[in-house]
Design a protein that fits this description.
The protein is of the alpha+beta class. The protein has 3 domains: 191 residues, 2-Layer Sandwich (Beta-Lactamase); 104 residues, Helix Hairpins, CATH 1.10.287; 148 residues, Heat Shock Protein 90 (2-Layer Sandwich). Helix content is 52%, strand content 19%. α5 runs antiparallel to α6, α6 runs parallel beside α9 and α8 runs antiparallel to α9. The longest helix is centred in the first third of the chain and has 52 residues. This is histidine kinase. One of its GO terms (cellular component) is plasma membrane.
């Protein structure tokens, strides 16, 4: 029973069943139409033959042939009657049996019973215009040929149609099974792929139809899953390393203070602990921001004035910018649809990065047009090499590894920028600034109605 249930539920069985049923219905209907058409054709042929015989008899009567001679045919499959004006049979080729008129007026009867005959006859009555006292000529032709031909055709179709349908069902079953065999192979291979065998890939069937394309798509999906897991493992490893570093500094300072109180004062210990705690807090906050973005818990939903966010973040940044000048002379109006908290984070991270690498000035620009709000943050620092511009948006990437930790970031700021901008349907890219530094350009969809 389970085997039957599996077979009935399979695509192969459904396709074969539906196709077989459709073909059976079409062939059955076609067979009925064919038999009816064949029967109709033979009936018309009998009628035409009977009419020709009747016309021939009328022509003979006109030439002086007697009714008795004209009615004699000598054939068993033909009957002839000649009637006078009163409807009396005056001549017949079977005078002993055909004493009763088969028809009494001109016309056609396709299936007439003839006394003394087992077969039915197609009978035609034709007016003779009182030739030698004959008013009506009746000729009948046996329908035996029609009935036998119809029966033979029906018998042949009754055998050939089921055989044809059965052969077609087998062909469909075999063809569908062969076509779906690569799918079953892929299913078995996919069933074996798990976390331990994630690098494995599905074998690509030959050809370029839907099944090979499906295999390639599934392999590409596995590539993305593997890349995602690899990035996740790398992220966990990098995050663990970054979190371990400030903890190690705090622990080292505490151990030195405990073992050698004279080597580190309470103020120095507190300063180290506070500095590393702040670094830990920044890392944890950045990690939570990334997790929130990836889980889409802060989906864009309101209109945001980007120029207000820019001025607010610049005002905050000036307190710690030191000698670096923040130039906002190119900031104009700009509105988008989004989350103001996350968009403020984008501006804050870009400013932090620019101030950290600037030599003396950071220029901020904002303008909108063509359906896009464009934010530009550029510095006059050493810039970013073209080969590294994609890498800086990856997590925990710091190009200057020799830089002191206090001067460098966590390696998450630009990754957060890229994630937030992407979540808002925008894009971010890096170019060379006019002063030789790095120019970050963020493009976001403009708020509706601001064109």
């Amino acid at each position: 029973m389970r085997l039957l249930e599996r077979i009935s539920a399979s695509t192969r069985a459904r396709v074969t069943g539906l196709a077989t049923l459709f073909v059976l219905l079409v062939l059955s209907l076609g067979s009925v139409v064919l038999v009816l058409a064949l029967s109709h054709s033979i009936s018309n042929s009998l009628i035409n033959s009977a009419q020709q015989d009747a016309q021939s008899i009328v022509a003979q009567l006109k030439t002086g042939v007697s009714p008795a001679e004209a009615a004699t045919t000598g054939r068993n499959d033909v009957v002839v009657q000649l009637l006078d004006a009163h409807g009396t049979v005056i001549a017949s080729d079977h005078s002993a049996r055909l004493t009763v008129p088969l028809l009494t007026s001109p016309g056609v009867h396709k299936s007439q019973v003839v006394p003394g005959e087992h077969d039915k006859f197609t009978v035609v009555a034709l007016r003779a215009a009182d030739e030698q006292g004959v008013r009506l000529v009746i000729v009948g032709r046996s329908t035996e040929q029609r009935d036998e031909t119809r029966a033979e055709a029906a018998g042949v179709l009754a055998v050939s149609v089921p055989l044809t349908v059965a052969a077609l069902a087998w062909i469909i079953w075999f063809s569908v099974g062969r076509a779906l065999r690569p799918v079953e192979v892929m299913r078995q291979q996919a069933n074996k792929i798990n976390a331990a065998h994630l690098p494995d890939r599905l074998a690509l069937p030959e050809g370029d139809d839907e099944i090979p394309r499906l295999a390639r798509t599934l392999n590409e999906m596995l590539d993305r899953i593997e890349d995602g897991q690899r990035l996740q493992r790398q992220f966990v490893s990098d995050a663990s390393h970054e979190l371990r570093s400030p903890l190690a500094v705090i622990r080292q300072a505490a151990e030195i203070s405990q073992s050698h109180p004279e080597r580190i004062s309470t103020e120095e210990l507190a300063a180290d602990v506070l500095a590393e705690s702040a670094r830990l807090e920044g890392l944890v906050s950045a990690l939570l921001t990334l997790a929130r973005i990836e889980n889409r818990t802060d989906a864009p939903h309101e209109q945001v004035d980007l120029d207000d966010l820019v001025f607010t973040e610049v005002s905050r940044q000036r307190d710690k910018a030191g000698s670096v000048t923040l130039d906002v002379s190119d900031v104009g109006a700009g509105r988008t649809i989004g989350n103001p908290v996350l968009l403020a984070q984008v501006i804050r991270n870009l400013l932090d990065n620019a101030v950290r690498h600037a030599s003396g000035v950071v220029r901020i620009g904002l303008h909108q047009g063509g359906g896009t709000a464009t934010l530009v943050v550029e510095d006059d620092g050493s810039g970013i090499a073209a080969a590294d511009r994609a890498r800086v948006f990856e997590r925990f990437v710091r190009l200057d590894e020799a830089r002191a930790r206090d001067d460098g970031g966590s390696g998450l700021g630009l990754a957060i920028v890229a994630s937030i901008v992407h979540e808002h349907g925008g894009s971010v890219r890096i170019e060379d600034a006019a002063d030789g530094g790095a120019r970050f350009e963020v493009r976001l969809p403009m708020a509706p109605g601001d064109d």
